Amino acid sequence: SQLRPMSLIESPRPGRVSQAIAKSANQNILALYDERSFAGLIAKARSRTGSLDLELFCKGWQDQIFDGGFLDGVHAAAVDAPRAAAIIVARPETIARFLTSNDATLARFADTCLVIDADKGYEPVLANPSRPEATLAKWEQIVTHLHGKRNQPETIGLTDGALRVLDAFRARIAAALDQNSSEALLFLGQMPRLAAKLAVSLHATQTNPLGVVTEAQATAAVATTEQGIQYRHSVIQGWRDRIAKAKFETTCARTLEKV
Fold first, then answer.
1. Within 10 A of 14 (CB to CB), how many other CB atoms are there?
2. Would you say residue 125 has pLDDT above 50?
3. Which positions ≥6 away from 127 have C-beta within 8 Å?
4. CB 33 within 8 A of CB 14
5. What does 143-168 look like in DSSP terms, one character per residue?
6. Whole-angstrom distance, CA of residue 254 vs CA of residue 243
Protein backbone atom coordinates (compact mmCIF):
# COMPACT_ATOMS: atom_id res chain seq x y z
CA SER A 1 0.00 0.00 0.00
CA GLN A 2 1.09 3.56 -0.60
CA LEU A 3 2.33 5.74 2.21
CA ARG A 4 -0.07 8.52 3.12
CA PRO A 5 0.84 11.68 5.01
CA MET A 6 -0.35 11.57 8.62
CA SER A 7 0.98 14.87 9.89
CA LEU A 8 -1.65 15.66 12.53
CA ILE A 9 -3.14 13.28 15.09
CA GLU A 10 -5.72 14.43 17.62
CA SER A 11 -6.24 12.79 21.03
CA PRO A 12 -4.24 9.67 20.14
CA ARG A 13 -4.45 6.51 22.19
CA PRO A 14 -1.11 5.23 23.57
CA GLY A 15 0.85 3.65 20.74
CA ARG A 16 -0.88 5.51 17.91
CA VAL A 17 1.86 8.09 17.39
CA SER A 18 4.63 5.49 17.05
CA GLN A 19 2.44 3.53 14.62
CA ALA A 20 1.65 6.61 12.56
CA ILE A 21 5.26 7.78 12.16
CA ALA A 22 6.10 4.73 10.03
CA LYS A 23 3.10 5.41 7.78
CA SER A 24 3.84 9.09 7.34
CA ALA A 25 5.25 10.04 3.96
CA ASN A 26 7.46 12.74 5.49
CA GLN A 27 8.02 11.19 8.94
CA ASN A 28 6.60 14.34 10.51
CA ILE A 29 4.00 13.97 13.23
CA LEU A 30 2.27 16.50 15.46
CA ALA A 31 0.09 14.99 18.20
CA LEU A 32 -2.58 17.06 19.95
CA TYR A 33 -3.44 15.78 23.43
CA ASP A 34 -6.38 16.83 25.55
CA GLU A 35 -6.79 16.07 29.25
CA ARG A 36 -8.09 12.52 28.85
CA SER A 37 -5.75 11.39 26.09
CA PHE A 38 -2.69 12.78 27.88
CA ALA A 39 -3.73 11.23 31.20
CA GLY A 40 -4.05 7.96 29.27
CA LEU A 41 -0.51 8.33 27.92
CA ILE A 42 0.86 8.97 31.42
CA ALA A 43 -0.98 5.92 32.76
CA LYS A 44 0.52 3.74 30.02
CA ALA A 45 4.04 5.18 30.24
CA ARG A 46 5.51 1.82 31.27
CA SER A 47 3.55 -0.23 28.77
CA ARG A 48 4.97 -1.02 25.34
CA THR A 49 2.54 1.27 23.52
CA GLY A 50 2.99 4.25 25.81
CA SER A 51 6.75 3.92 26.13
CA LEU A 52 7.18 3.77 22.35
CA ASP A 53 5.28 7.04 21.90
CA LEU A 54 7.33 8.74 24.61
CA GLU A 55 10.59 7.38 23.20
CA LEU A 56 9.60 8.68 19.77
CA PHE A 57 9.03 12.19 21.13
CA CYS A 58 12.42 12.12 22.88
CA LYS A 59 14.25 10.80 19.81
CA GLY A 60 12.54 13.38 17.62
CA TRP A 61 13.67 16.12 20.00
CA GLN A 62 17.29 14.97 19.84
CA ASP A 63 17.22 14.30 16.06
CA GLN A 64 18.08 10.67 16.71
CA ILE A 65 17.10 7.45 14.95
CA PHE A 66 13.93 5.89 16.38
CA ASP A 67 14.56 2.15 16.48
CA GLY A 68 12.23 1.21 19.34
CA GLY A 69 9.38 0.28 17.02
CA PHE A 70 11.67 -1.88 14.90
CA LEU A 71 13.15 -3.68 17.90
CA ASP A 72 9.65 -4.33 19.29
CA GLY A 73 8.42 -5.67 15.95
CA VAL A 74 6.03 -2.78 15.31
CA HIS A 75 7.97 -1.29 12.36
CA ALA A 76 9.67 -3.01 9.46
CA ALA A 77 12.71 -0.75 9.86
CA ALA A 78 14.09 1.98 12.09
CA VAL A 79 12.85 5.51 11.43
CA ASP A 80 15.67 7.85 10.50
CA ALA A 81 15.48 11.32 12.10
CA PRO A 82 11.74 11.44 12.81
CA ARG A 83 10.02 14.75 13.49
CA ALA A 84 7.58 14.06 16.30
CA ALA A 85 6.16 16.75 18.56
CA ALA A 86 3.16 17.22 20.83
CA ILE A 87 0.87 20.00 22.00
CA ILE A 88 -0.74 19.12 25.32
CA VAL A 89 -3.72 20.93 26.80
CA ALA A 90 -4.38 19.56 30.27
CA ARG A 91 -5.20 20.58 33.84
CA PRO A 92 -2.37 21.92 36.02
CA GLU A 93 -2.68 18.89 38.32
CA THR A 94 -2.12 16.53 35.41
CA ILE A 95 0.83 18.56 34.17
CA ALA A 96 2.31 18.65 37.68
CA ARG A 97 2.12 14.86 37.97
CA PHE A 98 3.80 14.62 34.59
CA LEU A 99 6.59 17.05 35.49
CA THR A 100 7.31 15.33 38.82
CA SER A 101 7.05 11.74 37.60
CA ASN A 102 9.75 9.28 38.68
CA ASP A 103 9.40 7.32 35.43
CA ALA A 104 12.60 7.84 33.44
CA THR A 105 10.94 8.03 30.01
CA LEU A 106 8.30 10.49 31.20
CA ALA A 107 10.99 12.57 32.88
CA ARG A 108 13.05 12.74 29.68
CA PHE A 109 10.00 13.86 27.71
CA ALA A 110 9.04 16.39 30.41
CA ASP A 111 12.53 17.93 30.25
CA THR A 112 11.90 18.94 26.63
CA CYS A 113 8.52 20.61 27.18
CA LEU A 114 7.62 24.29 27.20
CA VAL A 115 5.01 24.75 29.94
CA ILE A 116 2.65 27.68 29.45
CA ASP A 117 -0.44 29.07 31.17
CA ALA A 118 -3.08 29.23 28.43
CA ASP A 119 -5.61 30.95 30.71
CA LYS A 120 -3.48 34.06 31.19
CA GLY A 121 -2.74 34.74 27.56
CA TYR A 122 0.68 33.53 26.64
CA GLU A 123 2.35 34.00 23.29
CA PRO A 124 5.75 34.57 21.74
CA VAL A 125 5.07 38.02 20.26
CA LEU A 126 7.84 40.04 18.68
CA ALA A 127 6.55 43.58 19.02
CA ASN A 128 3.79 43.74 21.63
CA PRO A 129 4.20 40.98 24.26
CA SER A 130 1.60 42.39 26.67
CA ARG A 131 -1.53 42.00 24.53
CA PRO A 132 -4.20 40.73 26.92
CA GLU A 133 -6.23 38.95 24.24
CA ALA A 134 -3.38 36.62 23.32
CA THR A 135 -4.06 33.01 24.28
CA LEU A 136 -3.54 29.86 22.27
CA ALA A 137 -4.39 31.77 19.09
CA LYS A 138 -0.73 32.54 18.42
CA TRP A 139 0.25 28.92 18.83
CA GLU A 140 -2.58 27.92 16.49
CA GLN A 141 -1.18 30.36 13.95
CA ILE A 142 2.30 28.89 14.27
CA VAL A 143 1.08 25.29 13.95
CA THR A 144 -1.14 26.10 10.99
CA HIS A 145 1.67 27.94 9.22
CA LEU A 146 4.22 25.18 9.80
CA HIS A 147 1.71 22.51 8.79
CA GLY A 148 1.16 24.31 5.50
CA LYS A 149 4.91 24.45 4.84
CA ARG A 150 5.69 20.84 5.75
CA ASN A 151 6.54 19.90 2.15
CA GLN A 152 8.71 22.98 1.58
CA PRO A 153 12.10 22.26 3.20
CA GLU A 154 14.38 25.23 3.60
CA THR A 155 17.62 26.15 5.32
CA ILE A 156 17.32 28.81 8.00
CA GLY A 157 20.32 30.65 9.39
CA LEU A 158 20.94 33.03 12.28
CA THR A 159 21.94 36.66 12.21
CA ASP A 160 24.91 37.62 14.36
CA GLY A 161 22.54 39.30 16.80
CA ALA A 162 20.36 36.20 17.10
CA LEU A 163 23.43 34.06 17.68
CA ARG A 164 24.61 36.37 20.47
CA VAL A 165 21.20 36.23 22.17
CA LEU A 166 21.02 32.43 22.06
CA ASP A 167 24.66 32.02 23.14
CA ALA A 168 24.12 34.38 26.08
CA PHE A 169 21.07 32.38 27.18
CA ARG A 170 23.05 29.14 26.88
CA ALA A 171 25.79 30.63 29.05
CA ARG A 172 23.29 31.74 31.73
CA ILE A 173 21.80 28.24 31.84
CA ALA A 174 25.24 26.63 32.09
CA ALA A 175 26.17 28.97 34.96
CA ALA A 176 22.92 28.17 36.79
CA LEU A 177 23.54 24.42 36.48
CA ASP A 178 27.12 24.84 37.69
CA GLN A 179 25.77 26.46 40.86
CA ASN A 180 22.95 23.97 41.39
CA SER A 181 22.92 20.63 39.58
CA SER A 182 20.05 19.04 41.53
CA GLU A 183 17.88 16.55 39.69
CA ALA A 184 14.92 18.94 39.79
CA LEU A 185 16.85 21.40 37.61
CA LEU A 186 18.19 18.98 35.00
CA PHE A 187 15.49 20.10 32.57
CA LEU A 188 17.30 23.43 32.30
CA GLY A 189 19.90 21.71 30.15
CA GLN A 190 17.28 21.36 27.40
CA MET A 191 16.12 24.98 27.52
CA PRO A 192 18.75 26.47 25.14
CA ARG A 193 17.74 23.90 22.53
CA LEU A 194 14.09 24.72 23.18
CA ALA A 195 14.75 28.44 22.74
CA ALA A 196 16.53 27.79 19.43
CA LYS A 197 13.70 25.64 18.13
CA LEU A 198 11.18 28.24 19.22
CA ALA A 199 13.13 30.97 17.45
CA VAL A 200 12.96 28.98 14.22
CA SER A 201 9.21 28.50 14.72
CA LEU A 202 8.77 32.23 15.20
CA HIS A 203 10.79 32.87 12.07
CA ALA A 204 8.49 30.54 10.12
CA THR A 205 5.46 32.70 10.96
CA GLN A 206 7.09 35.92 9.77
CA THR A 207 7.71 37.31 6.31
CA ASN A 208 11.48 37.35 6.22
CA PRO A 209 13.04 37.33 2.75
CA LEU A 210 16.52 36.97 4.26
CA GLY A 211 15.78 33.42 5.40
CA VAL A 212 17.42 33.95 8.78
CA VAL A 213 16.31 34.13 12.40
CA THR A 214 16.56 37.74 13.52
CA GLU A 215 17.76 39.08 16.86
CA ALA A 216 14.18 40.14 17.72
CA GLN A 217 12.91 36.62 17.06
CA ALA A 218 15.68 35.07 19.15
CA THR A 219 14.98 37.54 21.98
CA ALA A 220 11.28 36.69 21.92
CA ALA A 221 12.08 32.97 21.95
CA VAL A 222 14.38 33.32 24.96
CA ALA A 223 11.81 35.44 26.82
CA THR A 224 9.11 32.86 26.14
CA THR A 225 11.40 30.05 27.32
CA GLU A 226 12.21 31.94 30.53
CA GLN A 227 8.51 32.51 31.21
CA GLY A 228 7.98 28.80 30.68
CA ILE A 229 10.64 27.98 33.27
CA GLN A 230 8.93 30.25 35.80
CA TYR A 231 5.49 28.81 35.13
CA ARG A 232 6.82 25.25 35.35
CA HIS A 233 8.14 26.08 38.82
CA SER A 234 4.82 27.60 39.91
CA VAL A 235 2.85 24.57 38.70
CA ILE A 236 5.08 22.15 40.58
CA GLN A 237 5.15 24.29 43.74
CA GLY A 238 1.38 24.71 43.70
CA TRP A 239 0.94 20.97 43.32
CA ARG A 240 3.29 20.24 46.23
CA ASP A 241 1.55 22.82 48.41
CA ARG A 242 -1.83 21.18 47.73
CA ILE A 243 -0.43 17.75 48.59
CA ALA A 244 1.07 19.06 51.83
CA LYS A 245 -2.22 20.76 52.74
CA ALA A 246 -4.20 17.60 52.04
CA LYS A 247 -1.83 15.52 54.21
CA PHE A 248 -2.05 18.05 57.02
CA GLU A 249 -5.87 18.08 56.92
CA THR A 250 -5.95 14.28 56.92
CA THR A 251 -3.63 14.14 59.92
CA CYS A 252 -5.76 16.67 61.77
CA ALA A 253 -8.94 14.74 61.02
CA ARG A 254 -7.46 11.48 62.27
CA THR A 255 -6.18 13.20 65.44
CA LEU A 256 -9.61 14.67 66.16
CA GLU A 257 -11.22 11.25 65.72
CA LYS A 258 -9.09 9.99 68.62
CA VAL A 259 -10.01 12.85 70.95
1. 21
2. no
3. none
4. no
5. HHHHHHTTT-----EE-HHHHHHHHH
6. 17
HSE-CB for 179 with a 13 A CA cutoff: 7
Q: How do residues 206-249 score in pLDDT, each as one tens digit?
A: 655 567 888 999 999 999 999 999 999 988 888 788 877 777 77
Q: What is the DSSP letter of 32?
A: E
242/248 Cα distance (integer angstroms): 10
Angle separating helix axes 92-99 and 35-43, nearest 10 degrees: 30
Query: Backbone phi, then psi, for 28, in 5-degree steps?
Result: -135, 110
The conformational region for residue 31 under phi > 0 = left, psi -120 to 50 = alpha, else beta, is: beta
The DSSP output letter for 79 is B
What is the tens place of the pLDDT at every residue in 204-218? Answer: 776 555 678 889 999
Please, are residues 21 and 12 in contact by the beta-carbon 8 Å criterion?
no
Its pTM surpasses 0.85? no
Helix (H, G, I), strand (E, B), or coil: what is residue 66?
A: strand
Residue spans of alpha helices (H) in the chain: 16-23, 35-43, 48-61, 68-71, 92-99, 104-111, 137-148, 160-179, 191-204, 215-258
